[in-house]
Design goal:
This protein is mainly α. The chain has a single domain, classed as A middle domain of Talin 1, CATH 1.20.1420. The chain has 13 helices and two strands.
Amino acid sequence: MGAMIRALTARWTVLVPLLAAVALAVTWGRSLHSVGVIIVVAALMGAVLAAVHHAEVVAHRVGEPLGSLVLAVSVTVIEVALILTLMSSGGEKTASLARDTVFAAVMITCNGIFGLSLLVGALRRRVAVFNAEGTGAALATVATLATLSLVLPTFTTSKPGPEFSAAQLAFAAVASLALYGLFVMVQTVRHPGDFLPVEADGVVADDEDVHDDRPSVRATLISLALLLVSLVGVVGLAKMVSPSIESGVASAGLPPSAVGVVIALLVLLPETLAAVRAARRDQVQISLNLALGSAMASIGLTIPAIVLATIWLEGPLVLGLGATQMVLLGLTVVVGVLTVVPGRATLLQGGVHLALFSAFVFLAASP
């Protein structure tokens, strides 16, 4: 029975990315009706689930903490491609799309995925245990990147409105990329032990214990190829349903910024599923690595990509957050620090972060 289940799992994880690629090829450049939208959404969800599986196979092979970067960077590639695609065809009405999507990604990861991981971990063993040094370093980097890229544009005076001047935009891009690169080096080379799961008694788990029975090189390379196919399918299919998303948001009477929230929720679904799975295996640290790593990559890689894209994109680029958004961001950082410092959390901390996430979603729909 176990062998049969594994065989079925292997089949769908191979077939679904290929079917998503076929669906993308058939529907690309065509207007979709209701049935077509349903088919594309089904293929999109399948590609997301397949991406999670293959990213976990690759991560299982390379080990922690490098494995946590695989899915984080993959998800960010989806986000960047989708933002650039929509901005290239949306004109001035998409001036704030990058800001809305990146901010939504930060709130989803630092409150939604973060809180859900703590909640699942605490439900499993009453107290969710993690490495405060590594998690604190990641949170500090996320807070700095978010402030430099999303808060400062509201207060600079070189250009009217919440925008950076060309020089300021270039500085933000270089600083974001440099900080992200520095963090990756610290996480994978200098202090990888700070990002490994810990036991209930505070002992850091050995990487061989976390990733025993690793897949073969051949299986890893196949999963890497299928991961790339899945990501292409997710990006392309998400682009195909984006007009439906925009029209649905408009018909529901929601503000335009809700489009960025929907995009972020969509592209971060693989990350959420992978984080919950890790928390259920008593590997809360891996869940937090995924959450904060995605937030960091979302800013550290998206902002430089958007800056490069401004060479050919027309119209303004609005990056500065509004007052309500800055309050939520500030509260997220303060609560995150208080959660991380002890190195252990209960249901209460998870519930607090999920409450902040709920407030973000509600205020995005009803500002």
